């Protein structure tokens, strides 16, 4: 029942997927970033994740159905995305720990991170829609679980900044981030639902 609900809830989203993924919440390429700031780091990650998602999408479009060989190939691509987001978590943690954050830079960073998570959710939805009969989703379990774990690290870090539990922003600065913690939680929930829609229990 949970599997069916997840698929149904994403039907409209999956229907509008295109080979070139664009973020439903924010166009990361349009975000003005501060050089060497948090948003700058997130933007670099977004660009690479977008490229890899487009590559996966193109492979699926060319094959129509995902057979065993293509599934294995996609797992390798997803692992690249995992590595990129793990590094993003490391880099953002270092900046938050160092302090001296700028509220508008943090806000821009969060918008880009939401876009990254949406890209990842979108590609999982597309994979779920094209798996050939007889191909087990088990091949994706490890990498999808790892992807969720590294996304959660980044999202939890940014939520803690929004709530004033990390980063040292003033009460006035935190007003700039009002509502963003809820948006981060929502995008993480959407990604979890995409995992479930693929058949991966998380």
TrEMBL record:
Domain of life: Eukaryota
Alphabetical keyword list: Membrane, Signal, Transmembrane, Transmembrane helix
Secretion signal span: 1-22
Transmembrane segments: 80-104, 111-133, 139-164, 176-200
Protein name, entry field: Transmembrane protein
């Amino acid at each position: 029942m949970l599997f069916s609900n997840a698929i149904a809830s994403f039907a409209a989203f999956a229907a509008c997927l295109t080979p070139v993924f664009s973020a439903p919440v924010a166009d990361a390429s349009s975000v003005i970033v501060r050089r060497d700031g948090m948003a700058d780091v997130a933007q670099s990650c977004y660009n690479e994740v977008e490229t890899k998602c487009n590559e996966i999408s193109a492979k699926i479009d060319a094959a129509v159905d995902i057979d065993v060989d293509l599934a294995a190939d996609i797992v390798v691509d997803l692992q690249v995305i995992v590595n990129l987001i793990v590094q993003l978590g490391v880099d953002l943690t270092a900046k938050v720990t160092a302090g001296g954050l700028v509220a508008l830079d943090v806000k821009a960073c969060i918008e880009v991170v939401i876009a990254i998570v949406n890209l990842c959710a979108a590609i999982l939805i597309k994979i779920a829609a094209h798996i050939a009969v007889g191909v087990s989703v088990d091949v994706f379990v490890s990498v999808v679980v790892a992807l969720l774990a590294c996304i959660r690290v980044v999202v939890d870090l940014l939520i803690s900044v929004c709530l004033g539990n990390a980063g040292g922003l003033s009460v006035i600065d935190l007003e700039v981030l009002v509502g963003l913690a809820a948006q981060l939680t929502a995008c993480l929930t959407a990604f979890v639902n995409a995992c479930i829609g693929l058949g991966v229990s998380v």
